[in-house]
Amino acid sequence: MELYHVLNRGVDKRTLFLDDKDRARFVHDMWEFNDIEDAKNVWYRAPQYSGLRNHYMEKERIIDLHAWCIMGNHYHLLISERVDGGLTKFIRRLNVGYANYFNERYKRKGTLFQGRSKKILINTDPHFLHILNYIHSNPLDFSRDGKRWREKKLPSATDALKNLEKYKWSSYLDYTGTHNFPSVLTTELFSDVFKDYKKEILSFLQSNEARTIKEYQLEY
């Protein structure tokens, strides 16, 4: 199994998600487009639809989504393929589908994302052990206390953790016992590695690694 960190941002660093309707739409699309069959029901992709389906149908997925986080102008996904070519197919569908929705909702034309999504192969043990924490800690850079945390000015990592617990738009809550968006996520790989994930990420936030990781990052 090959594991990839996939990330992209808005063209010219533009905001991709203007409100919770946009964010919910992107989460829905992560589920909708993870299917060996093409999405056929256009009602679910209509611009006025803002949430997730209440009743998910069984289907054959093309990727496993192990972690995700969406921010104002970019996203992070952690993906492995279930079928050959599944990663490329999924990302193409996701980017095109969300861009079509966004452009129709906001009456705009043209490219939404900054080119092709960046794909980084997770090929070392340290990278594997840190990547889940890195993705989930991303909201700290955009929180009120984010700069203070990076500069080691927060009283404790517990203060940083409280910010993550308030942020709905990532897979962090699903890893720490709160059912947030479990239908889009595959948790078994990292749940087997980290038996107590909250303890694990707290340790990460207390470490220098959390403040110095550069190779995974976009210039926001």
UniProtKB/TrEMBL annotation:
SUPFAM superfamilies: Transposase IS200-like
Pfam families registered for this protein in UniProt: Y1_Tnp
Residue span(s) of domain Transposase IS200-like: 1-138
One GO molecular-function entry: DNA binding
Highest rank taxon of the organism: Bacteria
Alphabetized Gene3D superfamilies for the sequence: Transposase IS200-like
UniProt name for this protein: Transposase IS200-like domain-containing protein
GO biological process, one term: DNA transposition
